[in-house]
Amino acid sequence: MHHHNHYYGHAHIMARYAGLDDAAPPRIRGYLQHGWNVADGFNPTHEFFDGATRFVWSPDVAQRGYALGRRNYHVVGSPWLYLQELEPTLGLFDEDNGKPIEREGTLWFLFHGWEGGKIHGDHQRLIDEIRETEDGPVTFSLYYTEYDRPEVRNRYLDAGFDVISFGRRGFSYLGTDPDFLYKQLAAIRRHRRVAANRLSSAILYGASAGCEVAVYGDPMLMDGEDARFGGNARVERQWPELIGKDIDQNAAAQITRHELGADFRLTPYEVRHTMFDGSTND
Questions:
Q1: Which helix (H) or strand (E) holds 235?
Q2: pTM of the prediction?
Q3: Using one digit for the tens of pLDDT, what is the confidence trace for 236-245?
């Protein structure tokens, strides 16, 4: 239905969960929310075909959409939850000796831009604050839009951090790394703590995988950032429990379950017949 459904390999994950071809997933019958969202689940400029189903992560997202006069919402939970169910041990064991990996250090996610907007902020100030806050090694995760900018990537390399990127989300069905979230899940499970300078999908993913989470530092700005839903200031007002260097991790876990839609996951049969129109491999 729409190429956004392939972002981060979401369509591939849902197809695999449903017992379908995840190398070439059938088209999803509607629009699948591709990231944690403080509005109705989608980009405010996103155009929809009339009558198309909007598959979203949580009931709150659907309620906000209904309040905006939009319809045809179906709450299905985040593809991340389905991936965790498909890969219960990914990243937890040493590939060489099969022994459990002891989690250590922090996986730090920088707020990122996109193909149409770069981020701007005080990277040195952020580096200094991370050094003052985190104990143990820090691995820095950059989205490809920043990883491909040497002036950003090298700031964190020169600071002594390991710098990684999980791949590209793709565009118009081209260039999608279907292993994007697999790599992210493995990396998160190797770390004790996940942090970022804005509340984001990565923080919720970290909490759902049993990591301690934190949100702090210069939130930075992005070119053309759409503030019609309140921007980062609204996020900090609405989810204050998740903002800070040392937050209540039990509260974070409860909020995460709700925001990712843990209680609304579908069965493989339901995914196949609701999202893929009953497709089979036959």
A1: helix 231-238
A2: 0.94
A3: 999 999 999 9
